[in-house]
Design goal:
Number of strands: 22
Shape: globular
Radius of gyration: 23 Å
Helix content: under 10%
Length: 348
């Protein structure tokens, strides 16, 4: 068993109720351990290979809909049935002192506006941690955490309801669908372990606004118009807009190396069974909740575009890659011209 470990304290806080919504927070407060009035030890969480956890890890708070019960036998169906209230990224930035220390934590806060499924009182909340490799776009390490006493509170203060603190600091009754949590009084002993899973499985998807909340520092979000986090801005000054970084799975806070540009739509001819076909491909972010549609037309007229995922052949449809092939070979095509395009649109 591989280990996803060490001193990771999670909690999901359900704060005071209001008339319209309840603020929901989930975080890992164990960024440092106070061992004396004047001395702090930085708490570094470890990933499965024993190295320090980094900002390729994300933590979602949400529930599974339609009565879906996650298990190690239905991993491939988790993402399709999971609805995230929010997602946040693990932070490794340095917090100024004294004493100066790494942050080494995740922290997030969202609003629970109603108790429509799956955020009703009968559906258990989960914290889902997963990584995304920035090169491959694949996730090969997950952990799913729940406690039997975790419930979504009533979202309207006018009807009362319970609020509480969800924490795995006291993990006697903690349930992990993937992974285990062990009590430890020794700082070097692992607190959390998990088995790695097959790479390529889907992860929760989020829209642009949630991506901004997951990644951008709070100081970047103060501007009512979006400021440096707006889609057409370039927060890290690398020549790639924030929205293009969202689609590509890039980090908007760190400039891409010179020459690295967002993936573009690639069109090529391939030989299949003695005939020649056009194939279109696009690399994509595992997180971006958008539809990627490759279309073809012979006229460029409105209404003449055909979706190749239905009229052609899907060659690859993974977390990080979409490849589709035209259903008509070059040899069998009676038309003089053919046009292709990639259409990207947010999901409803």
């Amino acid at each position: 068993m591989k280990k996803f470990s060490s001193l990771l304290f999670l909690k999901c806080l359900f704060l005071s109720p209001s008339v319209h919504a309840i603020p929901i927070s989930w975080d890992s407060p164990g960024a440092s351990l106070q061992i004396s009035p004047l001395e702090l030890i930085a708490v570094t969480n470890l990933q499965s290979d024993g190295s320090d956890m980094d900002n390729t890890f994300y933590f979602a708070c949400g529930s599974f809909e339609n009565g879906f019960e996650p298990s190690s036998d239905n991993l491939e169906d988790w993402a399709e049935n999971f609805v995230a209230l929010g997602v946040t990224r693990y932070s490794t930035r340095t917090v100024t002192g004294p004493p100066q220390r790494p942050d080494n934590r995740f922290i997030a806060r969202r609003e629970l506006e109603n108790n429509l499924a799956p955020f009703d009182e009968e559906t258990p909340p989960y914290i889902w941690g997963f990584n995304i490799d920035p090169v491959t776009g694949l996730s090969d390490e997950w952990i799913l955490i729940n406690r039997p006493d975790w419930v979504w509170p009533l979202a309207s203060g006018s009807t009362g309801g319970d609020v509480g603190v969800f924490s795995v600091n006291d993990n006697d009754e903690l349930t992990t669908v993937i992974g285990t949590v062990t009590n430890s009084s020794v700082i070097d002993d692992p607190l959390m372990t998990t088995a790695a899973v097959s790479p390529g499985l889907s992860t929760p998807r989020i829209d642009y606004d949630e991506w901004v909340l997951a990644i951008f520092p709070i100081d970047d979000l103060d501007d009512a118009d979006g400021g440096v986090s707006a889609p057409n801005e370039d927060r890290d000054g690398d020549g790639v807009t924030n929205y293009d970084e969202f689609l590509a799975g890039f980090d908007p806070l760190e400039a891409q190396p010179a020459g690295v540009t967002p993936p573009t739509f690639q069109l090529q001819q391939v030989a299949v069974s003695g005939q020649t076909f056009f194939e279109g491909s696009i690399m994509r972010s595992a997180l971006a909740d958008v539809s990627w549609v490759v279309e073809e037309s012979t006229t460029l007229q409105i209404g003449a575009w055909r979706d190749l995922t239905t009229t052609g052949t899907i060659v690859a449809d993974t977390n990080s890659l979409l490849t589709v092939r035209s259903g008509v070979s070059v040899e069998d095509d009676p038309e003089d011209a053919r046009f292709f395009r990639l259409r990207i649109q947010p999901n409803e």
